Amino acid sequence: MKLIESKLYTFVETLSSFFLLNLLWLLMCIPIFTIFPATAAMFGVVREWVLHKDLKVFNPFFRYFKENFKQSLLIGLVWIAFAGIFYIDYQIMLEFGSSQKIFLPILILLGTLIIFVTSFLFPVMVHYTENWIGILKNSLFFSVIYFPFSLLAIALIALIVTTLLLFPAALLFIFSIGAYSLFFICNLVFQKIERIKLAESIN
């Protein structure tokens, strides 16, 4: 009986932590311009959960929010700029039709790079101590070199979007669960890199 109660308590505690983190993230995203800092903070929290099994929410959230505020804002501006270029080019291609299809491969490449970088962006930001250029460079490098993990991460993001479209109520918990799952996938890459570095240092 005690074992069942213990497992039930752990389950309820975990579920509550995901819900609170998701709610806190939503609240901190309301000003719009804080979406990137809030997302960095959420990934910082789930990093603690994955690595240290520590289910605290509020203190680590606001610590990561403060630590990554300026850097995440800057990266957010860069991301928005590239996404904006992609959108404008796409609209131009639709407007002028077949005469602009020569730019289609470039558009596909740019869109693919944005998706790949995004899949690793926040996990890299909270896991490594890098400037914003280093974060973008490592996110691209990891996503290309470890292609299967990138596909898995992108599939996860697509699943989150699909779930939200089918079940809007999932808004209350899907982002924190998605962030946890995404960091878990990216952390597998981080562990591989650490093992490679350790092997190189021994040799």
Structural description of this entry:
- The chain contains 8 helices and no strands.
- The protein is mainly alpha-helical and 203 residues long.
- The model has no long low-confidence stretch (mean pLDDT 89).
Based on the model shown, name its key terms.
single chain, 203 residues, mainly alpha, 84% helix, 0% strand
Q: What is the typical, i.e. mean, pLDDT?
A: 89
Main beta sheet strand tally, sense and closure? none
Number of domains: 1
Quaternary: single chain
Helix content: over 70%
- Count the DSSP helices: 8
Radius of gyration: 19 Å
Structure summary, number of beta strands? 0
Q: Globular, elongated, flat, extended or rod-shaped: what is the shape? A: globular
Poorly predicted regions: none
Topology:
Blueprint: H1 2-28, H2 35-52, H3 58-67, H4 69-96, H5 104-127, H6 132-145, H7 147-166, H8 174-202
Helix pairs in contact: 1-2, 1-8, 2-3, 2-4, 2-5, 2-8, 4-5, 5-6, 5-7, 5-8, 7-8
Outline:
This protein is mostly helical. It has one domain. It is built from 8 helices and no strands.
